[in-house]
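Exercise: predict the fold of this chain.
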Amino acid sequence: MPEPTTPDQRPADPVKPAAGPVRPESRPSAEPKGKPEVAPEPVPAPAPAAPTTGRERLIGALRKPSRAQAIVAVLLAVVGFAAVTQVRANEVDDSYAGLREQDLIDVLNGLAGTTQRAQSEIAHLETTRHDLQSSTDARQAALAQAQDRADTLAIMAGLVPVTGPGIRITVTEDTAPVSVDTMLDTIQELRAAGAEAMQINGKVRIVAQSSVEEAVGGISVDGTLLRSPYVIDVIGEPHTLTGGMTFLEGPRAQFEEDGQTVKIDELQSLDIESTVQPKQPQYAQPDTSQ
């Protein structure tokens, strides 16, 4: 006998087919439409070259320090700063730290007195130096003046060789010998024209005591026989000396009138090397009272 059915146990309605043809479910195609793209393989970066020397390792450590190295550097900096601070603190002079106000005033007064004494000594030394310099300058000026005077007297006395501008006079005998008077006149005119030094034929120096005498075959100057041609070297202003020889009826005209030929050359440099031996005065003595 069949069991009665309840409303909940009623058979389900049969599924009705949908209207129209049923389309088959579309499935994705297993084959790709094109060739697959292949990604390029990454190129590994070259490994940095390991430092080979101690210098390279030190440079690398300075450029890229590690954490431990940075900590060590900070600690060293702190220790160095503490050491410098301690040294400076030790160098502070605390000699006067415990003195009273009156003691400090006494110290300052003592320093002021020492400073004044030092300044006085400096002023005294500077005055002494100035006096010494003045005395030295005066003495040096006197010595220089005396040396200049001695040099001038030595040149005038013919004691030293001299050099300077001047003229050279060449007198050649043509038809008659040279007259002693004409030679003396020539020497006097050259002295009047400013001659500072003279010599004849490179042998005899003409000075204030020089003597000119007639001699066989020539003339004698201070005992030395000289022959024609007579070469007279004269140091002085060349143009003025030439004028002292060539003025109207002057020495040149007298030589030519006596039968000699005269040639005058103006020179910018002339050497007079002959000298005379100094003679000790027999009667004259220096007057020390003036």
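Check your answer against the key: The chain is about 40% helix and 15% strand.
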